[in-house]
Design brief:
Elements lengths: L1 H7 L14 E4 L11 E5 L40 E3 L4 E9 L5 E8 L6 E11 L5 E3 L5 E3 L6 E12 L5 E4 L11 E6 L3 E8 L8 E9 L11 E3 L22 H4 L5 E6 L6 E6 L3 E6 L13 E9 L5 E6 L6 E6 L4 E5 L6 E5 L30 E6 L6 E6 L4 E6 L8 E4 L10 E6 L5 E6 L3 E6 L22 E2 L2 E2 L11 E3 L4 E4 L4 E6 L6 E6 L2 E6 L1
Protein name: WD40 repeat-like protein
InterPro entries: DCAF7-like, WD40/YVTN_repeat-like_dom_sf, WD40_repeat_dom_sf, WD40_rpt
Keywords: Repeat, WD repeat
Length: 540
Amino acid sequence: MEWYTRSSQRTSGSNVGATPHSNGVFSQPSSATGAYSMNSSTTSPLPLNDTSYNSMTPGVPDWSGSGGGESTYFAPAYERSSYFYANTPLYCCDWTTIRLASDLDCIALGSYKEGFSNRIQVLHGLPFGSEMLEDIDLDGTSDYDYEGIQGFDFRKAAEINVDYPVTKLQWDPQLQKGNVGPSMLAASSEVLRIYKVEQNHLDPNADYKMVQEYTLANHISGSGHNKRFNNNNNNDNNSNNNSTGGGKSPTSKDVVHTYPPVTSFDWNSVNLNIIITSSVDTTCTVWDLNRPYGTDNGMTNTASVKTQLIAHDSEVFDVKFLHKSTDLFASVGNDGSMRIFDLRSLEHLTIIYEPPHTASGHLKTPGTPSLKVDNSQMVNPKALLKLSASNIDQHYLATVGVNSNKVILIDIRMPGIPCAVIDGSIRGTSNAAINSISWHPKYNFLLTGGDDCQALLWDCNNLELKLPRTTTSQSGGNNGSNVNGLNTSGSGSSGTTTTSIDTPVMAYSEELEVNNVTWRGERGDWIGVISGKGFQGVKI
């Protein structure tokens, strides 16, 4: 993939060392200039309402238009706090908080390296701070005062080697719910693998290890249904999987590598047994992990296909369940469309968004020049690469296209017309592509990371106030349907205009391109930024 190639060509040889001493922090817009700023080397984090930093802060480009040039300083790794330096370029990450006797921060990192020598690393984040206290509850459990956390000491707990770069990592959603069970981590590459991160409970000083529990291969031989894969081995080199349904099972490493690669996936946060994957073979596959709830005893290590469907006309690049839904999911792909499916009625689908066409046949994306489709290209210029669903309102979805600095926000009640477009060009000063998007776990703020070396936070609240009050059906549009109580009928309005959001509320800059961004579990008080070979924790 092109975004992998960009990140693999970057190195950060100066960021070598240990014992970091300074934090990366978000800063808010200056009240004096209206400009925003960011800092990667301050010695203590700013509170959320601090506006003392302006665009002239070292490490902060001048976006205010008031002059002063651009002064940049980036602390090396050994001077950074809340920072982990890896030996290889990193691409994907996920950050969760395991609610045990005391909360444990777990971070998963995936490398990008050409060839067959990649790895997945699991970090534990140990919080520190001058005012951080441990509160002891009446039941004997403890919790940290997270307002006093000044930073994290990230330490590698476990790692495992994989052949191909990992496109996405996601921790088991049950870890944040306080359920008793193993620490499970899912990773997609040529197949979807699910690992159990475990420690010898008889020896609390023993190292952690990653044990592969599932291998979900997206093959379509046979009926495409009722396929089961029993995965009791820890690596693909010594696989001895069995099949008890239609189709063939992955019986060797070579056979697994012949299946269509998995591009992305989503682990349902309501029904923890369900995972959906997307693939380059135009399909989406819904899997049932067949595991019992709340216990590590009696796990079957067996997954079955609930259903598999052809979702797009070409490759499917990303897929997401809608907020708090076990039946509704959305997908985006190389055909440039965003589609919604209902597992209870797969005979119908709703195309929520397609790039509009101009009279000359060019494709037009809001706020970008017209693009002519070249069918000989591997990735169409209209392709949608990333998808993120709001964690607050299931009506809202965000997507970004290939080499695009615009994020398209869609209200599924109004198919075909973006309710807003986030303009990542920052008032025309940047043409850098956006690589990653992620909604805040509790609020309608969207986090982006891009080739401009920045992580930006955008305010997406009150979008419903900007929508037209009345709509009329579009000729030639979708007939629509009522899905789970959501009106998705094709609609438009003669006075409809797409709102442009062109100013972020907070920002953070790095020395190299930002390949991925993530929130700290359900708290959302910190973010993680992947840039070059490093993972940086940033306090909001």
